[in-house]
Design a protein that fits this description.
The protein has 296 residues and is of the alpha+beta class. The protein is 37% helix and 29% strand. The chain has helices at residues 2-16, 20-28, 32-63, 83-94, 122-132, 156-177, 193-200; strands spanning 70-73, 98-104, 108-114, 137-142, 146-152, 184-185, 214-226, 229-236, 243-248, 266-278, 281-293. The strands form 2 sheets. A 5-stranded mixed sheet has the order 1-2-3-5-4. A 5-stranded mixed β-barrel has the order 7-8-9-11-10. It is globular and about 60 Å long. The protein starts with a helix and ends with a strand. The relative contact order is 0.10.
Length: 296
């Protein structure tokens, strides 16, 4: 989790801002004096990337109309490739599939999209659009959670219409079948390394063989939003230990608009149990799948 959330963006920021050289130098440097300076330069670069992402995401968020998807063209004034970052930020805010385009030469739009919604295969939707009108895409590709494409600018309205239509069609099926079935109820005082070790006897997990989903009663003590994810700090209802959780805004029950409604409340939490290792220190994290208030 720390590598994906903290280190990954630092490595990627050079590509976003067309300054890969400084990141490469940082990764290859073995002189600790020089390395400290390079790390600081990369961190400054990443902070600049964050500022640009927030700048353009805010423009979209402030002017968004209530469609099933977010599909916008932005004019990025700086030399930056941040479509995907903006799409993640905006999509996470509204919990909607999102694609953000910028225009390049010869009336071609370059887009980066994020599926955002759980169980929604965004690449399948691109296939459906291509089947309907093969002239829209100059090229496209990706996976079930994200994609990139080049689109003829004159056909952008058609793309947006079909994107909205096919997401609505798919989303109806998801809402009708999107139930969480926990594998076991776990008392809060049993959320521990022993439980994780018992679980790992059945590993490795992967596609079509996922780790178990547990259900526990907890109290949400703290919320820490970080772009398209949110960190939680839970406390068991009956004693004072703290348990950290992480949540990706990809479920219809929790969005950036309503997440604060859960703060300081007793909740049912459905989650997968993860183990993080940082410099030899192991910590358990709840990867939250669903959260509901406990009545009464």
């Amino acid at each position: 989790t720390d590598i994906g959330i903290k280190i990954g963006p630092l490595i990627n920021c050079g590509n976003c801002l067309n300054n890969e050289a400084v990141v490469y130098e940082m990764l290859m440097e073995d002189d600790f004096t020089k390395l400290e300076d390079l790390i600081n330069r990369v961190m400054e670069l990443n902070n600049y990337r964050k500022l640009l992402t927030n700048k353009y995401a805010t423009r979209i968020i402030e002017n968004f109309t209530n469609d099933s998807v977010v599909c916008e063209i932005i004019d990025i004034e700086e030399d930056a490739l941040i479509n995907g970052k903006v799409a993640s930020n905006v999509g996470g805010t509204f919990n909607k599939p999102t694609v953000i385009f910028t225009e390049i030469e010869n009336d071609v739009l370059v887009g980066s999209g994020r599926g955002i919604v759980k169980n929604l295969n965004i690449l399948e939707i691109m296939h459906e659009i291509n089947k309907t009108d093969s002239n829209i895409f100059l090229k496209y590709g990706g996976h079930e959670g994200a994609f990139g494409c080049n689109v003829n600018k004159t056909l952008f309205p058609k793309f947006k219409e079909l994107f909205n239509k096919y997401v609505e069609d798919k989303y109806k099926n998801i809402k009708d079948s999107d139930f969480v079935y926990p594998d076991a109820f776990v008392p809060s005082n049993s959320i521990n390394i022993d439980l994780y070790e018992q679980q790992q006897k059945y590993a490795p997990f992967g596609i079509n063989y996922e780790p178990p989903v547990y259900l526990s009663r907890l109290r949400l003590e703290r919320i820490i939003p970080i772009g398209p994810i949110c960190k939680f700090v839970f406390s068991p209802i009956t004693y004072k230990d703290r348990i950290e959780g992480i949540y990706f805004f990809n479920d219809t029950s929790i969005t950036k608009d309503n997440v604060k409604d859960f703060l300081n409340q007793n909740v049912y939490v459905a989650y997968k149990l993860k183990m993080n290792n940082f410099r030899g220190s192991y910590t358990l994290t709840l990867e939250v799948v669903r959260m509901e208030l406990i009545d009464g």
